[in-house]
Structure formats: structure tokens, C-alpha cells
Amino acid sequence: MKTVILALMVLVLVVVSQGGSTNNNSKDDNNNGPCDHDRKKSKFPYEDILNCLDLTDNKLVRPARDYKKPTWVYVQMSILAILDVKEIDQTFVSFVVIYMRWEDPHIYWKPQNFDGLDKMTVPTDLLWKPDLMIEEMIEKDKDIPNPFITIHSNGFVEHVKNLMVVSSCKMQVYKFPFDTQSCTLSLKSIIYPEEELKFEVYKNSSQATEWTREIMSTESEWLFMGMTVEDRSVPRFHQNQSVVIYTITMKRRSLLYVINFLVPVLLLFGLDFASFVISDSGGEKLSFEVTLLLAVTVMQLILNDILPCSSDSIPLIAVYCIGIFGLMMISLLETILVMYLIEKDSASKEKKADKNRSLSEDSGDKQGNYDGDVKKWTRCACVCNVSDEPPTELLSVAKEDKRSQLMEESNSLEKHPDELSEAVKGLSRLLSRKEGRKPDYWTRVAKKLHRIFFFVYVTVSALFLVVLFSLWINAEDE
């Protein structure tokens, strides 16, 4: 009896031990992948891995052990080149590289079973990939196709995309050309909500900045200052989506604009100061200042093709051009006023000269009439002295009387015309002195006005330039 009981106990123990080993083997089979079983050393590890993974079966759906949990995608973006920043179009053109890394539970193998191979490159069509997009992109991206994707033995997948991005960027040109711009590139999924696909930053802001500086090839007219990165959840179409936002900060290289625009306008303004030494009596100064105004107008037209019309505030460079144009316009108006006052004096002098000329002509006519009357009077006197004496005696007496009268009249005529002409000249000089005070007054007023305006003009111009350049240097971008 005892032997029967012992035999039954041994049988039960054997059955229990076999059942436990069977359960353990089934658990191991569930945890391990299809390429986990021990096998002999493979001669073609790549083909064997592809065959045992059978990747084509699971490429259409999101890889996940539990579909109630999201798939985590680690993202890192860097700027390879800053191609262009268009202020008028408010666009930022860049060439970027995007690195993505995620876990695919369908991929797993033991490297020791495949000649130590722990990663391999396969065509991208064989695997599922995140539907990544850039939210600010306004044109179709010019993607450089990467036909391969890297898979690791632990199930992680890596993919790199290179693409040229034309994105929208709101420009602040208040301090142009000494401005600093910040443009954002937001990476997100097209359709997956946050509950199914979540993006996480692979590197922080400082690491992303250093990596970008190492690989950046060209910056155009811009100087790359830095990059900040953050991940957040944003509402999109009644669902939340995971978004990674990169903010690229860059500063404009302003030397070219200073040499080609700011300095020429300042030199034209300096030429306007030089016009103060030009005489106001002629028209050369007026034509010179008009030419300077036209040159500044041409520079403003060039500026209009550079700056956007949608700026929130007036750029300082526009204030610079408008201020200089206004000051030069005031200088032109002052020149016109001074020339008008001088011309007023010149007109008065011309009127005075015409009066003197007409007065001298009238005195000459009067003197001629006086001489004619004297001659007529002498003839009449000779005819009227007729008596009863004989003609010979009368003739001799008349001749003697005529000679004496002619001598007296000639002496008187020699004296009176000189006195008359001197009196006329004295009268004309007196009139010119009395009338000359009024034209000289306007000339003095014009000179005094010109002198005062020059000092005020220099002071206002200096204050304007000092305040403007201090704002240019110290003001923050709005």
C-alpha cells in the first residue's frame, strides 16, 4: 500500500514539473520576437533578418504593443542653410535636416544570431513612418528623397529627411537694417492626435544651437544667433496634437546697407549744407537743391521696394529718409524766400534807374527848348528895332546892339545851363538817397534771415541725427 502511494506522489510531481516548464516556454515565446530563436550562424544575415521580420505585413498601421498608448517619436531639426529672407513677401527660405527616432515593436532580433549585426538599412517603403509636416510651410517642400531607413536590433527606427522649406515669417523691420528676426518652424503630425502620436525633443535648445552651428554651410546676408525648441500640445480641429516648435533667431549683416544706402543719403544731406555757401543772387543754388531733392526721392523709391507694407510701426530708416527730405525741403523754401527778397531789392533799383533816366531826358528837352526860345527872342528884338534913320546908320547901330546883346546872352547862357544841369543832378542824387533806403532794407533782412536759418538748420539737423541713431542702436525690436 505504501509503495502505491509513493508511486502516485512521484507521478503527480512529474506532471506538475512538466506543466510549469511548458508555461514558462510559452511566456518566453510571447515576449521574444520572431527572430529570437537560437539558430546557427547565418551566411546572409541581412536577408535572414528581412525574412524573419516580414516587415511588409505591418507597414500600414502605427506600430504599438497597446494601441491605447501613443507612439513616441523623438525629433531633432537643424538648419543647414539660410537661403533667403524676403521682407516684402514675409517668407523665410531655409534648408533643414530633420532627424526622427521611434520604436517599432515588430522589429527585434538577437545580434549574436546574425553575425553580430545590430542595425541595418532597409528601404523606407517597408516600414511605417510618422506623417511629419511643418505648419508654417506655404509652398510645396522640395524634398531630397531619402530612400532608406535604419532599423536597430532593439526595435528602434531612425529616419533623416532633407528638405528646402519656404515658410511664413512675420518680419519686424523697425530697426532695419540693424534688425534681428525670429522665425518659427512647427513640426507636427498631419492626422494623428496626441493620444496616438507624441513628439518629444531629442536635444535641448543649447545642444540644438551648437549642432546647427557645426553643420550650417551658408547664412546669406544673415548671421545665425541661436535656436530655441519646445514641445507643447495645441488644439487642432477638436483634438489636441503634439507639436515641436523651433524658433530660429538671426541678425542681418547691415554693412552693405550702410555703405549703399545710409551713407549716400547722408552725403546728399551734407551737400545741402554746402549749398549755403552758394550765392543767392543767381539761380544756381535753387537748381542745385532741387537736384538733391530728386536724388533723395530716388533713394526713397529704392527703400519702398525693400520694406514690407504690413509693418506694425514706421521703420526708423523711413523716418531717416523722410526727415532728411523734409529738412532739405525747408532749406529749399528758405532759398526761395531769400531770392524773393533780393529780387525785390533789384526790382526797386531798376525802377529807380528808370526814374533817373527819364528825369535826365526831361531836363535835356527843357534846356533845348530854352535855347530855341532865346534865339527866337533875339531875332524878334533885331526886327523890332527899326526907326526913321537911314538904313546904313540903322544897320550899323543894329549890328553893334546885336553884338553886345549876343555877348551878354551868350555869357548868361554859358552860366545858366551848367547851373541847371548841376541842379538836376543834385536833385536826382537826393531822390536816389531817399528812395535807396527801402531796397537796402530787404537785402539786409534777407542776409539776416539766411544767417539765422543756417544756425537753426544745423542745430535741428544734428539733434535729429543724434536721436535717430541712438534709437537705431538702443531700441528693441518691436
From TrEMBL:
InterPro entries: LGIC_TM_5-HT3, Neur_chan_lig-bd, Neur_chan_lig-bd_sf, Neur_channel, Neuro-gated_channel_TM_sf, Neuro_actylchol_rec, Neurotrans-gated_channel_TM, Neurotransmitter_ion_chnl_CS. One of its GO terms (cellular component) is postsynaptic membrane. Residues 1-19 form the signal peptide. Residues 58-253 form the Neurotransmitter-gated ion-channel ligand-binding domain. It is a multi-pass membrane protein. It comes from the Eukaryota. The chain crosses the membrane at residues 255-274, 315-342, 452-473. Pfam families: Neur_chan_LBD (PF02931), Neur_chan_memb (PF02932). It catalyses: Ca(2+)(in) = Ca(2+)(out); K(+)(in) = K(+)(out); Na(+)(in) = Na(+)(out). Residues 262-469 form the Neurotransmitter-gated ion-channel transmembrane domain. It is found in: Postsynaptic cell membrane. Keywords: Cell membrane, Disulfide bond, Glycoprotein, Ion channel, Ion transport, Ligand-gated ion channel, Membrane, Postsynaptic cell membrane, Receptor, Signal, Synapse, Transmembrane, Transmembrane helix, Transport. Its main location: membrane. GO terms for biological process: monoatomic ion transmembrane transport. Belongs to the ligand-gated ion channel (TC 1.A.9) family. Forms serotonin (5-hydroxytryptamine/5-HT3)-activated cation-selective channel complexes, which when activated cause fast, depolarizing responses in neurons. This is 5-hydroxytryptamine receptor 3A-like. The lineage of its organism: Eukaryota, Metazoa, Chordata, Craniata, Vertebrata.
